[in-house]
Amino acid sequence: MRLFIERALIKAGYEVISFANGKEAHERLKEESFTLLLTDIVMPQMDGIELARRASELDPDLKIMFITGFAAVTLNTDSKAVKDARVLSKPFHLKDLVREIDRLLAV
Q1: pLDDT at residue 77, as a whole number
Q2: Coil/strand/helix, residue 79
Q3: For residue 41, which of 77, 101, 78, 90 has the smallest C-alpha distance?
Q4: pLDDT value of position 29
Q5: Which of 53, 83, 84, 88 has its CA 20 to 30 A from that of 103?
Q6: Burial code of 50-81, b = ≥16 C-beta within 10 A, e = fewer?
Q7: Global pTM?
Q8: What span, in angstroms and rounded, lies between the C-alpha atoms of 57 and 51?
Q9: What is the 8-class DSSP label of residue 12?
Q10: Alpha-carbon distance 58 to 68, whole Å?
Q11: Is 37 within 8 Å of 17 (Cβ atoms)?
């Protein structure tokens, strides 16, 4: 799925760097700043919520969007969830993903 998303975002004009897991992404986020973190919630080595928390500590202005197959997932403020993060539930059409990213980055 990561490759399909990557291709769709590149086709939409975005520069994309993808990682196999949350730990790899976090290491790169420590070295370089990004505009958007698009992460699945369920991932190996470090889940998306933990990755987003750590990423927002590194860069409080980083925009964050979660994708998840669990429609019932909520980001509870008591669990120190990331402020202003967006959630897109699977399944979604790639055009919907691009549209949501366009909206998020326009803010």
Answers
A1: 42
A2: helix
A3: 90
A4: 97
A5: 53
A6: bbbbbbbeeeeebbbbbbbeeeeeebeeeeeb
A7: 0.86
A8: 10
A9: T
A10: 23
A11: no
Count of residues for the chain?
107
In this structure, is the dihedral angle defined by the CA atoms of residues 100, 47, 50 and 57, taken in order, positive or negative? negative
The first and second tokens of residue 21, run together, are 């897991």
| Residue 18 CA: distances (Å) to CA of 11, 76, 80 | 15, 27, 25
Low-confidence ranges of the chain (pLDDT < 50): 72, 77-78
**Helix, strand, coil tally for the chain in percent (to 5):** 40, 15, 45
In one-letter notation, the amino acid at residue 83 is K
- Per-residue model confidence as pLDDT tens digits over 7-26: 999 999 999 999 999 999 99
